[in-house]
Amino acid sequence: MNINTAADSSFAAEPWANISPKAVNFLVCLVVCLIVPVLCACGGPQVIKGTESGLIKENVTAGSEEVIFPDAPPSVADGQVVWQKLNCAVCHGMEGGGVPGKCAINLANKYRMVKEKPVDQYKFLVYGISAPKAFGAAGFMHPAINKLTNRRDAWNLVFYVRSLARPAATPAQVAEVSSVFGSNCAVCHGTKGYGDGPVGRNFEPMPANFQNFPRFYDRSDFILWDHIANGIKWEGMPNFLGKEDKAKNVKFDQAYIWKLVDYVRHFQETTEKSLPPTI
Question: What is the pTM of this model?
Answer without folding.
Answer: 0.75
